[in-house]
Amino acid sequence: MNNLKLEAALNELLSPHLIKDYCPNGLQVEGKTQVNKIITGVTACQALIERAIEEKADALLVHHGFFWKGEPAEIRGMKFRRIKALIENGINLYAYHLPLDVHPELGNNAKLAQMLELEVIGGLEEANPRSVAMYGQLDKAITGAELASRLSIGLHREPLHIGDNAPTEIKTVGWCTGGGQDYIDLAAQKGLDAFISGEISERTVHIARELGIHYFAAGHHATERYGVKALGEWLAQEHQFDVTFIDIDNPV
């Protein structure tokens, strides 16, 4: 498929024009005109780029790409080396950030809900039809230790659990993959039993304790593996691309 037609297909699926983001979504670095082989991964780090080169990929599709709001504009140092490697090898770089988080079937939040057997009720941001944070419920109440175990098994990573002053059992849950820890306030306001995010801040511990809500920090990378993986699988099934997901280990 033509590289620009691939971008159009991804844009049609993910609707990036409907959400305000911190980076450009879509084709960030242009490479070969024809795309057959795609490597997917969480972050366009040098290690993933090198793997894409080794695999002779035509495109790299990630959740965390380049050109973030507030970062230096100059292309030098680490940014230069990454972009140089892509251009020299003709590799197209596609990146979808918040549009991939919120997609109702392939998104990071949707995949985390599926993994934890959570029924999605709606968005925590009630006035936002494309809320980044979600909430839902389990079919039956479980303990904090049981939810931590589900996260550990599903994500292959032990979560940090703050359960001081929290309910004995968990039935209702809010969540936001990646750096969504500050949505814990909305989860507590809604009276939810627990909130899950990828990252944690120092303040999050005190908020969870004082508002009496279970909190789980499950890892930014760990909670955001599955959206881009699912997106690649969709491309393979719907458009017959040769797609390989490569997980570059990241403990955070």
TrEMBL record:
<feature type="binding site">
    <location>
        <position position="220"/>
    </location>
    <ligand>
        <name>a divalent metal cation 1</name>
    </ligand>
</feature>
<dbReference type="InterPro" id="IPR002678">
    <property type="entry name" value="DUF34/NIF3"/>
</dbReference>
<protein>
    <recommendedName>
        <fullName>GTP cyclohydrolase 1 type 2 homolog</fullName>
    </recommendedName>
</protein>
<feature type="binding site">
    <location>
        <position position="64"/>
    </location>
    <ligand>
        <name>a divalent metal cation 2</name>
    </ligand>
</feature>
<keyword id="KW-0479">Metal-binding</keyword>
<comment type="similarity">
    <text>Belongs to the GTP cyclohydrolase I type 2/NIF3 family.</text>
</comment>
<dbReference type="Pfam" id="PF01784">
    <property type="entry name" value="DUF34_NIF3"/>
</dbReference>
<feature type="binding site">
    <location>
        <position position="224"/>
    </location>
    <ligand>
        <name>a divalent metal cation 1</name>
    </ligand>
</feature>
<feature type="binding site">
    <location>
        <position position="101"/>
    </location>
    <ligand>
        <name>a divalent metal cation 1</name>
    </ligand>
</feature>
<feature type="binding site">
    <location>
        <position position="63"/>
    </location>
    <ligand>
        <name>a divalent metal cation 1</name>
    </ligand>
</feature>
<dbReference type="GO" id="GO:0005737">
    <property type="term" value="C:cytoplasm"/>
</dbReference>
<dbReference type="GO" id="GO:0046872">
    <property type="term" value="F:metal ion binding"/>
</dbReference>
<dbReference type="InterPro" id="IPR036069">
    <property type="entry name" value="DUF34/NIF3_sf"/>
</dbReference>
